[in-house]
Each structure stands twice: as C-alpha cells, then as structure tokens.
Amino acid sequence: GIVLVAINPYEQLPIYDQGVIYAYSGQNMGDMDPHIFAVAEEAYKQMARDEKNQSIIVSGESGAGKTVSAKYAMRFFATVGGSASDTNIEAKVLASSPIMEAIGNAKTTRNDNSSRFGKYIEIGFDKRYHIIGANMRTYLLEKSRVVFQAEDERNYHIFYQLCASSSLPEFKDLGLSK
Fold first, then answer.
1. Which residues are annotated as a binding site for ATP?
2. Which of left, alpha, beta for 139 (phi over 0: left; psi -120 to 50: alpha)?
3. Domain match, 76 and 129 both
4. HSE, side-chain direction, 13 A CA sphere, residue 155
5. Tens digit of each residue's pLDDT (9 = 90 or more) over 55-92
6. Residues 62 and 109 grouped into a single domain
7. Which residues does the UniProt record annotate as the domain Myosin motor (predicted)?
8. What is the 8-class DSSP label of residue 113?
9. Are 95 and 173 part of one and the same domain?
C-alpha cells in the first residue's frame, strides 16, 4: 500500500486549511506532493470506485502527531463528503476527545499530553459518500502506568483531575485526597 512519512512540526502550519483540502480533492496520488490529504483522497476514491471498505493506518512514536493526522483525515472526509458544513460530523466525532484525553493521556518525557490509547475509528458513509456517522474504539496501551511511572513522567490525567476535585460534594464518597 501507500506509505506517507510525516513529521510533527509542533506548530500550526498553513498546509491543512480548506484550500489545501480542495487542492487535493479529485487528484491522483502521484500528481501532488505527499500529504495526509493525498492518502485520504486515495482511500476515498477507492471506496467510491470499488465500493469496498478502506483503511488508513496512522502509526508512529509518542508525540509524532498520530492523533492530529487522524483529525486531518477526518476533516478531509467531512469536507469532500459534503458533511463538514451540514452537520459538522468532524466536531461530533471528536467531541469525546477531552474526556478520552483525561482518561487515556499522560505526561511522558517527550510529550506533556501523550495519548496512551490505540484508536480505531470507523467512519460510515451513505450511498452518496457523505459521512453519516462514526464509531471510535479505544484500546488502553499502557495499563502498567496505573501503578508505575518512569522518572519525569506521570500517571493518567484523570487521576490528577479526580484528586483536584476531591472537595466537590459528588466526589465525597470516593475517599480521594490530595
């Protein structure tokens, strides 16, 4: 299959806006520079042409930008699938992100907000290839972090958030302390 190597620049660049999405939409893979939108366009075209499910695997080390790359691919599908402005599917799919980040993200030596989850996101399309919904399954990758953290790292964010909220009445019965 197609392989794209991307580097996380750790800052916003103007290479992911609507204009760039439209520039890659409808193009052939080799006609444009390598880009997450080129990979997404190829999967989208093959889905429509062959009427078969497609997969994009985003892999890399901690802090490589996997979650951001997946968000860009979803933004591409929402835009070319005609649903970005209609129902804001991308926002709905990613609405659970803050909760998921609290439960599955932790401070590592490379990244203060590193996802410790593997994610499988399944996007549903209708017969006109418009997004109609999505399911996200998550897999906790580092269960050992619950009881042990390496030097200069910390546990999952949710534990710190619970302890910081320990004085709230709804947390009283949990027996949390600072």
1. 60-67
2. beta
3. no
4. 9
5. 999 888 777 888 788 888 988 988 887 765 555 665 66
6. no
7. 1-178
8. T
9. yes
